[in-house]
Amino acid sequence: xxxxxxxxxxxxxxxxxxxxxxxxxxxxxxxxxxxxxxxxxxxxxxxxxxxxxxxxxxxxxxxxxxxxxxxxxxxxxxxxxxxxxxxxxxxxxxxxxxxxxxxxxxxxxxxxxxxxxxxxxxxxxxxxxxxxxxxxxxxxxxxxxxxxxxxxxxxxxxxxxxxxxxxxxxxxxxxxxxxxxxxxxxxxxxxxxxxxxxxxxxxxxxxxxxxxxxxxxxxxxxxxxxxxxxxxxxxxxxxxxxxxxxxxxxxxxxxxxxxxxxxxxxxxxxxxxxxxxxxxxxxxxxxxxxxxxxxxxxxxxxxxxxxxxxxxxxxxxxxxxxxxxxxxxxxxxxxxxxxxxxxxxxxxxxxxxxxxxxxxxxxxxxxxxxxxxxxxxxxxxxxxxxxxxxxxxxxxxxxxxxxxxxxxxxxxxxxxxxxxxxxxxxxxxxxxxxxxxxxxxxxxxxxx
Amino acid sequence: xxxxxxxxxxxxxxxxxxxxxxxxxxxxxxxxxxxxxxxxxxxxxxxxxxxxxxxxxxxxxxxxxxxxxxxxxxxxxxxxxxxxxxxxx
Lengths: 448, 89
Known about the structure:
The complex is a heterodimer.
Chain A: E1 8-12, E2 24-28, H1 43-53, H2 58-73, H3 79-110, H4 129-146, H5 164-183, H6 187-193, H7 197-206, H8 210-220, E3 232-233, H9 242-252, H10 256-261, E4 270-271, H11 274-281, H12 284-292, H13 296-314, E5 328-331, E6 343-351, E7 354-363, E8 372-379, H14 381-385, H15 391-403, H16 419-437, E9 443-447
Parallel strand pairs in A: 1-9, 3-4
Antiparallel strand pairs in A: 1-2, 5-6, 6-7, 7-8
Helix pairs in contact in A: 1-2, 3-4, 3-5, 3-8, 3-13, 3-16, 4-5, 5-13, 6-13, 7-8, 8-13, 11-12, 11-13, 12-13, 15-16
Chain B: E1 5-12, E2 18-23, E3 26-31, E4 43-47, E5 50-55, H1 57-69
Antiparallel strand pairs in B: 1-2, 1-4, 2-3, 4-5
C-alpha cells in the first residue's frame, strides 16, 4: 500500500488499435466509504472528527456535515458562527487556489516542450513555496482563532467572538499573498478591472507576477483549448437545494456506494470544479468558455477569478458581502429515511475543487449533540471529475487523439522529432490537464 | 476521500527541505518546505508529497485510530506508529 489516502491510476492508450479499448482508463483506490466510521457515534463527536479525518478540505467537510445535520434536526447556528464558517471556508479555498497557481501549474507547465518560453522553477527553493507556507500558516492561525470560544462547525453552534485584530491580520496575509504573487494589485481592484477576455490578456502581458506568466504561456503556446470536451457541469446548489433533492435518491439507494464511486446526473457524467462554478456566474469565465469551451484557459481564469473574489472578501471580513452564508442543507424527501424515528439531512459546501455533498441519517435525542449518527455518506468532487467517462477521461481522450494525428505540412505538429518526443509531450500535456482539473489525491499517469 | 494521514518524521536531509516519513509503515520522501521547525519524531499531515502542518502526537494517534476503525487500514501496519511520542525505529 503505497499511499493510504488512495490514488488515481490514469492510463492513456493513444492508439488502441482494433480491440476497441477506450483510449483513457481511470481507476481509483480512494477509500470512499471511510465516512462509515461515524456510524453509531454521537453527533458532537462526529462534528469534531470530520475535519480530523478529511483534513485536506477539512473546512468544506465540516461545513457540509454541519449543514446536513442542521437540516436533519431543524437546527440553526448563531449568525456569528455562520460568519466564522464562511470566513474559514473562503480562507481554505484561497489557500488551495494559491497552491494550484503558485506550485502545481508552474510545475506542470515546465514539463511541456511546446512552452519553450516558460522558465522552469528553480529546484531549490521552488518560488511559490514560501508564499504557500505563509498562506498555510495564516489559514491555521485563523482556524485556531475562530475556534477559541467553541467549534463554530458544531451543528447549531453558539456564537463566536474572536479577537478582531488577529483575525484581520491572518486574513490580510492571505489577501496580501494573492495580491503580490498572483494579481500584482489588490484583488478587489483586479476583479473590477478584469471583466472580459481582453482585460485578462492585457493584464497577463503587463503584470510581473508568476500567475500572469501562466496565462501568457498557456495562450502563446496555443493551449487555451487543451482538454476541451462536451462534458457538462453540475448545476450550482441554489438556496432551495434543488440539486440536493435530486441527489438524495441515489445517495439513499441500496447501491449508493456505486453511485458515490462514479456519480452521474440524469445518466450523464458532469464536472464540478471552480470552472463549473464560474461558468454559472456568466462573467469572464463564461466569455472565455464561449471561445475555448472547458479547455485550459477558462479553467485557469476560473481559479484566478475565484481567488480574487475570496481574497477581496477576506480583506473586509466583517462586511455585509462577506456575511452571506456558505453551503446549503435540506431535509431528505419523505420516504428516504429508514423509519419514522430517523431524520435524514443533506448538506453541501463549495469545496476548493468542487461541490462536496454529505448525507446523514440521525436518531434524534433530547440534546442535539447526543443525537446518534446511524448512517453517513460523502459524495466528493473528485469522483464526479475523475469518473471513468467524465471530464478528465474525455479531455485526455481528446489530447491523445490530437497528438497522434498525422502532422500536416508546416503545421508545427507536436509529432516533430519522432515518436518518443511526441509521447513525452502527450504525457506532459496530460499531466497539465489533470493538474487543471485537480484531483485531491496523488495520481499515476502512464502512456501505453 | 481526501484523507490526511499523519506521518512521523524519520529522517531529515541536511541542508534541504526534504525528509523521510513513515506513512502507515511505509517510508516515503516528502518536502517540509511548508512547515516550520519540524524535527525527527514529529508528526505531520502529508498531502501529495508535502507536509501540510505539524500535529500533536495525541492528535496523530486519534486520527490514526479513526482511520483504523474506518476499516481502511491493516492495523498491523500501524503498530509502531500508534504510540505517541515514541522514538522512530
